[in-house]
From TrEMBL:
<dbReference type="InterPro" id="IPR004675">
    <property type="entry name" value="AhpD_core"/>
</dbReference>
<dbReference type="GO" id="GO:0006979">
    <property type="term" value="P:response to oxidative stress"/>
</dbReference>
<dbReference type="InterPro" id="IPR004674">
    <property type="entry name" value="AhpD"/>
</dbReference>
<keyword id="KW-1015">Disulfide bond</keyword>
<dbReference type="GO" id="GO:0051920">
    <property type="term" value="F:peroxiredoxin activity"/>
</dbReference>
<dbReference type="InterPro" id="IPR003779">
    <property type="entry name" value="CMD-like"/>
</dbReference>
<protein>
    <recommendedName>
        <fullName>Alkyl hydroperoxide reductase AhpD</fullName>
        <ecNumber>1.11.1.28</ecNumber>
    </recommendedName>
</protein>
<dbReference type="GO" id="GO:0015036">
    <property type="term" value="F:disulfide oxidoreductase activity"/>
</dbReference>
<comment type="function">
    <text>Antioxidant protein with alkyl hydroperoxidase activity. Required for the reduction of the AhpC active site cysteine residues and for the regeneration of the AhpC enzyme activity.</text>
</comment>
<dbReference type="InterPro" id="IPR029032">
    <property type="entry name" value="AhpD-like"/>
</dbReference>
<feature type="active site" description="Cysteine sulfenic acid (-SOH) intermediate">
    <location>
        <position position="134"/>
    </location>
</feature>
<keyword id="KW-0676">Redox-active center</keyword>
<feature type="active site" description="Proton donor">
    <location>
        <position position="131"/>
    </location>
</feature>
<feature type="disulfide bond">
    <location>
        <begin position="131"/>
        <end position="134"/>
    </location>
</feature>
<keyword id="KW-0575">Peroxidase</keyword>
<dbReference type="GO" id="GO:0045454">
    <property type="term" value="P:cell redox homeostasis"/>
</dbReference>
<comment type="subunit">
    <text>Homotrimer.</text>
</comment>
């Protein structure tokens, strides 16, 4: 199971996805930990068993045990936060924004890896999950940490391609079942 195996499963009509997957992962200038943590966390966020099964072994091989766990933790905590904060933002009654969240998110303060990497993964997962408030929050932290827009954009390029591959392969699986 690997990136090449995943690319081979993409149908011809989605050739652009195959090329983009090779580009955003195979030709990335991101440090290995940022890259593979982003790949793993967005594969989890995509909710695609096919994509996760194909990409997880390579991500695990390229991440330290601490980074592997932290990338999974980013996907988990952002699955909760993205629903909560997106809902609060979308409600017309803005008073919900003044209420205490009351949700545990300790991993954000102590992720076990460099804070910038964890923020990067949280940002990418927020792109998959479509939470504008979380995207803004994590992007601001990343910018304050000195990351350039071009680097930050790599996170949501990976998120976009992984999500598109997941949607395509899951649709193909459903159509052939």
């Amino acid at each position: 199971m690997s990136l090449d195996s995943l690319k081979s499963r993409i149908p011809d009509y989605a050739k652009d996805l195959k090329l983009n997957l090779g580009s955003v992962i195979g030709n990335s200038d991101l440090p290995a930990q940022q890259l593979w943590g982003t790949v793993l966390s967005t594969a989890i966020a995509s909710r695609s068993a096919i994509v996760l099964r194909e990409l997880e072994p390579e991500a695990k091989a390229n991440l330290s045990p601490e980074a592997y766990t932290a990338a999974k933790a980013a996907a988990a905590v952002m699955a909760m936060n993205n629903v909560f904060y997106r809902t609060r933002h979308l409600l017309s009654d803005h008073e919900y924004g003044n209420l205490r969240a009351g949700l545990r998110m300790n991993v954000i303060g102590n992720p076990g890896v460099d804070k910038v990497d964890f923020e990067f993964w949280s940002f990418a997962v927020s792109a998959v999950n479509g939470c504008g408030q979380c995207l803004d929050s994590h992007e601001q932290v990343l910018r304050k940490a000195g990351l350039e827009r071009e680097v930050i954009q790599e996170a949501f390029k990976i998120a976009a391609v992984v999500q598109a591959v997941a949607a395509t392969l899951d649709a193909e699986a459903a159509l052939t079942a």
